[in-house]
Sequence to fold (428 residues):
Amino acid sequence: MMKETNTLYREMGISEAVLAFGARAEAELKERFEAIEENVEYNQMKVLQAMRKNRVEAACFAATSGYGYNDLGRDKLEAVYADVFHTEAALVRPQIACGTHALAVALSGNLRPGDELLSPVGKPYDTLEEVIGIRPSIGSLAEYGVTYRQVELLEDGGFDYPAIERALNERTRLVTIQRSKGYQTRPTLSVKRIGELIAFIKERKPDVICMVDNCYGEFVERVEPTDVGADLCVGSLIKNPGGGLAPIGGYIAGKEEYVERAAYRLTSPGLGKEVGASLGVMTSFYQGFFLAPTVVGGALKGAVFAANLYEKLGFSVIPNGKESRHDIIQAVTFGNPEAVIAFCRGIQAAAPVDSYVTPEPWAMPGYDSDVIMAAGAFVQGSSIELSADGPIKPPYAVYFQGGLTWQHAKFGILMSLQKLYEAGLVKL
Fold:
């Protein structure tokens, strides 16, 4: 059977040399893959338990329009999310356009003029810079009188606790903690480390709101940031929790007071969570969330495979081939733009959609340099689907994530290596 499969790989452009190199890397990962599958099973049962508890029914999938009053499916889905994240409330809406929008809603709903926002983990993801006002933009928090400060991580990726304590002051209203690395080469934060940071902050300022940007992290571990003290947890449905089926949307889960404030920002004062029609997306929201643990498991296998493959070729990879995983992103530092471009073109060539397209670096909104993005996705922009991207600037790192199935993730990684091999950028 393997011989027949390899024939298909060769027909789709994977050379014998790349196939053999990939097979050697995969053979070493049996135990890692088994551990991932154990977490998949646990998280699958957690989601199933929440759906059964909340008596999800066929009527939940009915479309609503207009104001969306008394939308049964919407309200039950939010109860399901709240149960899975072990929170008082959740806001799960198609009106939330993306992860950045979800974070902006949570921040602007819970900050007021004169408040200060603190990031104790360094600079946030690029697209949040304009939300905060680090880079000037229309409607930023800075325009509304919200100040911002950040504390850099230590060189070893640890928290600078003395500097964090000094940064906390009477105006600090909200602390934002980005779990994933973004376009940085720092380690992703484990839920355990996030819990330790929150405990430290709460001990010194109990009234501060601790919010976690959970993008790319859902279902990677058995616990979520809200299990270790986070007041708010925020993410995108076109990443992990949408399972590749959600066509749009984001979520905010946490304490009822803070979720309600976010809802008033998303809609309007006086309306909050009561309005917002589901427009026929509930089936994909529910089904995607149900499938999410399995889909995330496949993406994790792909990330581990990529790390081991490129580590063997001498490239710096974060996380490395043996480290524990806390998100689905795999960073590979190539040191030159040609390799970043070749890698992304390999991922694009392996896609089920737009495989014939050649990605090029371009000036994307929200970023301070040209960015190359590869994604042949069923949902445009979905990063739980096989995708890769990176800014064309030093250290010339590429960020790989996703794959609705492990098999597709594997093919994408092999194709990325194939493009590098053909360009003479690696030797096997």
